[in-house]
């Protein structure tokens, strides 16, 4: 790992000022993606701005018909939150199946969403529930946020501070993990609620995406059979030593079916 | 400087943390990992580095009571925390922690390399589940720890026995079958 200067601000304003002062600085939250990347020298930030000292970025609260989760809230906190379990159980469930116990004790929702790894879990929840991303300067709808592999609408120096999830009537998540790495090969989050019927697919493509044909089918008939008939186009999906694009396309339908069953 | 070139113009960051109940202050680089601080500065070599990619769990310690992979935590980020390593489990008189005792009784180690991390993860798992864990739940709870000898069977048995002692359901560890 190349060396860097370390900062630990205690407010969002200070963190944003540090980022603005140094274009080569990077924010770090749980570090379970960034530190392994730095060990491989894939990145050479001049400074790391540790967000873990910023109290205002932590916590879960209900605001009207939404659950708002601070960016530095850990997966372990979402998984065990009574508030999340009561209002959006699928989100609490998802947090219990991210990585392993030690990853969940350090990793944060803000880090996962801002990083937008194609095989991450949370982007499926953000897109599939029609959440709103809250940043240091604006609010961004999920549909406008995820732009491509490891790419989001966040601008230079803009900090993701939280995510607001509208409470759905029902929602379910299912994923197929790679048996060795445990990363998502293909996953689906389906929901029905104030944001309409939504189906978000993660793991299968270079970026999380909505499956329009499945959304249309579930809108007229909310059942596993409705999505079972819909084939995902393999064109543009990920293909690697772990599975072909056709295999992932097949998994998309299977995971969507299971997600509908999990949603009840 | 063992690794790379020291930047003499930058002041080395200092970190103060409690390790196994004792306060330590050390000069580190920004990039120094917690596991490097523990092993190389404090000479607590019971915490192992297996994969160095947060997969294998040989480096698991407790930070403020919760298990974490010390190969993926910056030493400076542990400022002000209380860290427990495998060396901090046994009592001053040498009496083993019930989890250590169970690992010994159930022969839950072969080469022993993964053992410190397994024990630390297992204690966190048991402490968070006072209702008791089934064999299946123990196996799932160990997802972040790899045993390259594949000695999982006895590790699971040891944790199942240790949880009864840790939660006070029995006063003595159940003996392993002959």
TrEMBL record, chain A:
Keyword Lipoprotein on entry: no
- The chain positions of domain FAD-binding PCMH-type read 1-170
Pfam families for this protein: CO_deh_flav_C, FAD_binding_5
InterPro entries attached to this UniProt entry: CO_DH_flav_C (IPR005107), CO_DH_flav_C_dom_sf (IPR036683), Diverse_Substr_Oxidored (IPR051312), FAD-bd_PCMH (IPR016166), FAD-bd_PCMH-like_sf (IPR036318), FAD-bd_PCMH_sub1 (IPR016167), FAD-bd_PCMH_sub2 (IPR016169), Mopterin_DH_FAD-bd (IPR002346)
GO MF assignments: FAD binding; oxidoreductase activity
- Write out the entry's keywords from A to Z: FAD, Flavoprotein, Oxidoreductase
Q: Which domain of life is it from?
A: Bacteria
Question: Know the name of this protein?
Answer: Xanthine dehydrogenase family protein subunit M
Species, as recorded: Plastoroseomonas arctica
Q: What is the lineage of its organism?
A: Bacteria, Pseudomonadati, Pseudomonadota, Alphaproteobacteria, Acetobacterales
